[in-house]
Every structure is written in C-alpha cells, then in structure tokens.
Amino acid sequence: MILGELMTHLRCAVLRDSALPQLWTDTELLRYLNEAVDLFARRTHCITDDESLFTTFNTVVGQSTYALDKRIIAIDEMGVVLDPETDTASYHPMSSNTRGQQHTSFRKGRPCAYTIQTRSNAARLWPVPDDVYKVVMVVARKPLNKLVNSKDIPEIDEDYHLGLCDYAAWRALTNNDPEGANMAAADKFFGAWSLMVRDAKRDLRRMRAGQFPQARDNWTGKRAR
Q1: pTM score, whole prediction
Q2: What are 72-101's pLDDT values in tens digits?
Q3: Which residues contact 4 (CB under 8 A, 6 or more apart)?
Q4: d(Cα 77, Cα 93) in Å, to the nearest integer?
C-alpha cells in the first residue's frame, strides 16, 4: 500500500476522523506511521541488506575495531572477500563470538571471527588484520527513508502495512485523551499491533531457520572446536 492509502485508512476507517474540524493533523499521523515502520523493523529485523554502502568496509592494517553504521540493527553474516578482483561473491565467513568468547590475543592475520561491541556500536575483528581486506556483511537495518509523499511505500512486507495503522491509532488516541475516554480503544489498537509484531517475528524466524532448524542462538556452552 502507498502512504496516501494508509493515511486515508487510518483517518477514515480507524480513527473515524473525517469530519471537520479534524482532531489530528496529517503531520501528526504521518509521524506516528513513520514511528511504526521504524519500530516494526527494529523489533522484527524484517529488513535485510547486503547491498548498501554501509554493509561493506575495508580493514586497516593493525586496526581491530570498526564502527558500524547507526542504521544497522543486527549483523546476520560477516565475511572476508577472498579475491575482490576476480570473484566478489566468494568469501570466507567469520564466526560470531559473544563477549565471553572474545579473543584477547593480538595475533595478526586474516580475520576469522568478530564480536559486536554494543556500547560503542562497533565490530571487533580477530585476528587483527595484517593486510587490507574487504569485509562484507548481511545486516538487519532500519528503513533508509521516511514516508513523505503520498506514493511512498513502507519498506516492510505489504502483509503488515495495515498493522502500522493500529500503532498510529494507539499513539493518536493516547496523545489526545485529556479525560481518559479513549483508553479502551487505544488499548485495543495496541493489542492488535503487539500481536502483529509477535506473529511477524515468528514467521520471519521460521523462514530463516530453513528446513532443519537448530536452536544455535540459545547455546550457552563451550564453543565447538
């Protein structure tokens, strides 16, 4: 759905705010819809990217830590291109380490593992690069552009577009409710939004797990050697 259709649905079918004077301005409703798209992307990791410029960087000799773009939510894959001049699709995947598995040695070589430092929003590579390597990533990211024009399309699957209106309606009702009269309706919309996010996370998780899913992300024991 395009933004113009979402705005019409939100104002007329959801909020019943078509009579003049209107309770909410277009600017308010547009801000809530953009909040919904951003929050949905951050909670579900539904937008994956391996083509934007910030999904690739070159290492510096002797430098182990590299800042990540603030639009990156999570890293699904990271690897080193083996031969950028002949085959950029062939790369050596790196393993993802937790803080407890983080290497403390400063051995130099081609990076084979990385650790995400959330406080500094950076990736730490190990071994420390001994040459210039091209690092490629598959990331989950935030939307790149805000919804502005009536023909703009939210950067999430169309199956979830109408659910954005539930979040926007909840925000609109709770921010224009001086006597608490709208709280029941607001709670209903927030409940519908929360269920949509839950189902989207489940569906995306199932799809990415493949035919033979394994609970690897829950493993807390020692690394396999």
Answers
A1: 0.82
A2: 999 999 999 877 665 555 678 888 877 666
A3: 150, 151
A4: 7
Of the pLDDT bands very low, low, confident and very high (cuts 50, 70, 90), residue 219 is very low
* CA distance linking residue 209 with residue 165, whole number of Å: 29
Side-chain half-sphere of 32: how many Cα atoms within 13 Å? Answer: 25
Q: What angle do CA 22, 24, 25 make, to 5 degrees?
A: 95
Q: How many CB atoms lie within 10 A of CB 224?
A: 6
Rounded to the nearest angstrom, the gap between the alpha carbon of residue 224 and the centroid of all alpha carbons in its chain is 29
Q: Which residue has the higher pLDDT, 105 or 61?
A: 61
What crossing angle do the helices spanning 161-174 and 26-44 adopt, rounded to 10°? 120
List, in order, residues 6 or more apart from 152 with CB less than 8 Å away. Answer: 2, 3, 145
